[in-house]
Structures are given as structure tokens and as C-alpha cells.
Design a protein that fits this description.
Main location: membrane
Oligomer: single chain
Helix content: 40-55%
Organism: Tardiphaga robiniae
Subunit structure: Part of the signal recognition particle protein translocation system, which is composed of SRP and FtsY. SRP is a ribonucleoprotein composed of Ffh and a 4.5S RNA molecule.
Pfam families: SRP54, SRP54_N
Order of helices and strands: HHHHHEHEHEHEHEHEHEEH
GO molecular function, one term: signal recognition particle binding
Bound molecules: guanosine-5'-diphosphate
Radius of gyration: 21 Å
Structural class: alpha/beta
Largest sheet: 8 strands, mixed
Strand content: 5-15%
Number of strands: 8
Strand order of the largest sheet: 3-2-4-1-5-6-7-8
Shape: elongated
Length: about 300
Amino acid sequence: WRRLSGGLKRTSSALGTAVADLVTKRKLDRAMLEDIEDVLLRADLGTEVAARISAAVGHGRYDKAISADEVKTVVATEVEKVLSAVAKPLVIDTTHKPFVILVVGVNGSGKTTTIGKLASTFSAEGRKVMLAAGDTFRAAAIEQLKVWGERNKVPVIAGAQGSDSASLAFTAVTAARDDNRDVLLIDTAGRLQNKTELMVELEKVVRVIKKVDATAPHAVLLVLDATVGQNALSQVEAFHRTAGVTGLVMTKLDGTARGGILVALSEKYKLPVHFIGVGEGIDDLAPFTARDFAQAIAG
Ligand code: GDP
């Protein structure tokens, strides 16, 4: 979390500087509130949240001087309210063996890295983990997952590049069941060049997994790169429709000016947020907590 507040410095200081500029030597009026709302929109918080914060700032303060700290406190409070509703841990239901987690998202969002970090987290909790290299489209993705498997000392089910990802998923769920694994993490392809094909493939992966275990996948995690800002909204839309996303992981929150997008997403889709990625290392994954994130954003 120290890494997060450091990482979100770029988000919070942009916000803080703009707010400080606005409130000095002025009394609060309608124009100032509109300016504050603009600053919040530029911080990617979304129209609803920005409007709500601006209204809360104005409440009972018209024609009075207001400090930047007062504004920040309101921002932190309102953001925390939004995030409290979605900050939920990923619960591994041990009645499912394996508990199958499908990891989806566009290429480069941090899927493979997140799987590596999750494998480490789950192993540390004493769970028997298995990985499946379901992004069969890219040789590099398969290799990268194997490296994470070695690092975590967990087996990786992988096929040749270009092989069918659905049949790989079938093989992996069967292997994890036969090997008594607690958790199976399945990587998937995320090429956006052909979105329709990708979504058809993802639907097929889900369908085939159900042939082995009708209750699976037990979690569908969408990995989102914070640095893409507003684009994250359309990614949620597309993947949720296709794969039934059950929770989010937001990566690259270290050093982005666009961390506010998580607030806009949470307000709009209300999907559980489980983890955040704050670096490339194996330990750079943190459970998501509303208060810390809100404080980090408000600065
Ligand atoms: P995938 O294509 O979705 O599997 O994405 P990768 O896991 O290969 O990640 C893409 C790049 O983002 C890699 O260089 C990762 O090291 C990097 N990355 C992933 N998560 C984070 C994060 O939380 N912070 C930072 N700074 N980099 C990350």
C-alpha cells in the first residue's frame, strides 16, 4: 500500500494541484464547483461521482472560503463510499476441487503476470495450484506462463502454439481434478485485433470447461490495465457480456495518473474488485481495500 500511494501520486498530485489552484483566494460559488467537477472528470472519476463530489463540496459552504484539504477530505469520503461497495476478497470455495479461475483481459493488461502473483499468493496459503497456458495464440505467452510456473514451483499445462485453447482448458481442468489440485488458474488469449473471434473463442472455452465441471469456472477475473483510462470501460462491457466476469483486478497502479478510472468503473458496473497490481514482481499484488485506495487518490 505504500507502493500504491507512491504509485497514485501522479493521480493525486494532479488532482491536488488543480484543486489548490482553484480554491485559493476565492469564495465558493457555482463556478468554482463546476471547475472542481472538471478537475474530477479529468482525473477519470466519471460524471456521476464527479457531480456527487462537487455537490458534497458545495453543501453548506456557499460564499465561504474553502481549503484544498477540505475538498480532498470530501473526495476521499465520497470515493471511499463508492469503493466500499465493491471491495471484496476473492473467496476460494473449497467445495470445488479444483476451484477454476478463468483469467481474461486484453493483451498487455497483465493477465500472465497476475496469474504468476496469484499462484504465489495461493501457494503461500497452502493451496495446491495448477496453471493452464490458455493463450495458445502467442508462443511468448506460453513461455512466460511456464516461467511463472517454475518460479512458483507449480505445474503448468501447456500445448503447442496455435493449438485449440478450449481443448487445452478441457485438458487442464481434467488434469487438475485428477491431480487433486485446489486451484486452477487458466490464462486466455486477449488479442483485440479480431474482437468477434476472440469473444467466440472465450465463449467456447467457458462451454468446454463446463463439460468437465458444470459449476466451473468458479471465478472469471477480468484484468484491467489502469493506464488505459477510459478504455477500461469498454473492456468491462465486452468481457462481461461474453464471459460473465465475477471480479476485477486492476494492474499498473504504480505510477499512473489514471487510477481514478477504477472509481468510475465501480460506480458504473459495481463488479467486485479483488486485487490491485502495483509492480512487476511476484509480491506486487495487494488485496483491494476501499479506504487505502480513496486516501491514495485524494492525496
Ligand atoms: P498479458 O498480455 O495480459 O498476459 O500481460 P502481461 O502479464 O504479459 O503483462 C504485460 C506487461 O505489463 C509486462 O511487462 C508486465 O511485467 C507488466 N505488468 C503487469 N502487471 C503490472 C503492474 O501491476 N505494474 C507494472 N508496472 N507492470 C505490470
